Amino acid sequence: MLEDFEELFVEVQAQALTEVVKNATAAIEKERQIGRINRGKVNAQMVELDSPPEELVLIGDIHGDLQSLLWVLKDIDFETRLTNPNNKLIFLGDYVDRGSNSIGVLYVICYLKQKFPNSVVLMRGNHEAPLEFPFSSHDLPLKLAQKYGHKMAESIYSNKIIPFFRLLSLVVLIPKQLLIVHGGLPTGDDLLLHKRSGNGLESAVQNPFISSTTMEEILWNDPMEHISNGLDWEYSRRGYGKHFGIAIS
Question: Which helix (H) or strand (E) holds 145?
Fold first, then answer.
């Protein structure tokens, strides 16, 4: 299978990209509808595993680096590992932009979700929320236009890729072990309201109408060991999100 992926360095046809994104979208929509993934619950933008996976691999921030992604997949013997649905491969987001092959990376992660839906969890990073939180380094539309022409690129981006991005999980919870987000923990008042109900972040993310502030912080926040003036958090210099300290953790 890796040999097939290596062909992505040369070409990904528009129809093939459209089809694989559509299939991955359908797999995630099915999970949402039934509320389950193998050994776990799916509730809106949160995946909560019932118990720790037999084997767990986390991959984050690929940023269009197809070569590194394929190296990692080979290193973990992904076909053998993912055939067992009790194992989990969790991608933490930021699949596109910066690197030279965002289209190839997008194809691979969608293919993996299509082929191993119960073993693969796809999370949303800040680079998968370009319309909600615009930023200058989002070059995926340009890469699509260069490969497929402006009209086809706009259709694929708007009608397939953006809806796919919006379905990706914001939080994965492995009880008593891990709380997984792309960026960091939210600090906002809306989260405090949920904490008073005893559910905290889980309740906030399971709300299909999650606030843009909570989403922004989940995708953009970063931890910082020392916050000035003894505060719990400070605004990030990136323009989105915050730096949060140990009090938030």
Answer: helix 140-148
Task: Note the pLDDT of residue 195.
Answer: 42
**pLDDT for position 245:** 59
In CATH terms, the fold of domain 2-174 is Purple Acid Phosphatase; chain A, domain 2 (3.60.21)
The 10 Å CB-count burial string (b at 16+, else e) for 37-68 is: bbbbebbbbbbbbeeebeeebebeebbbbbee
Which residues pair with residue 121 across a beta bridge? Answer: 90
Domain ranges of the chain: 2-174, 184-244
Fill in the amino acid letter for 45. Answer: Q
User: What pLDDT, on a 0 to 100 scale, did the predictor assign at position 222?
Assistant: 75
pLDDT for position 231: 58
How many helices and strands (H and E) does the chain possess?
Answer: 11, 11
Stated pTM of the model:
0.89
Burial class from Cβ neighbours inside 10 Å (0-12, 13-18, 19+) for residue 72 reads middle
**41 with 48: CB under 8 angstroms?**
yes
Three-state secondary-structure class, residue 39: coil
Q: Which residue has the tokens 């843009």?
A: 212
Residues 6+ apart with CB under 8 A from 76: 57, 89
CB contact set of 224 (below 8 Å; sequence gap of 6+):
234, 243, 244, 245
Q: Which residues of the chain have pLDDT under 70?
A: 1, 3-4, 6-10, 188-209, 224-227, 229-236, 241-249
Residue 37's nearest CA partner among 102, 106, 88 is 88
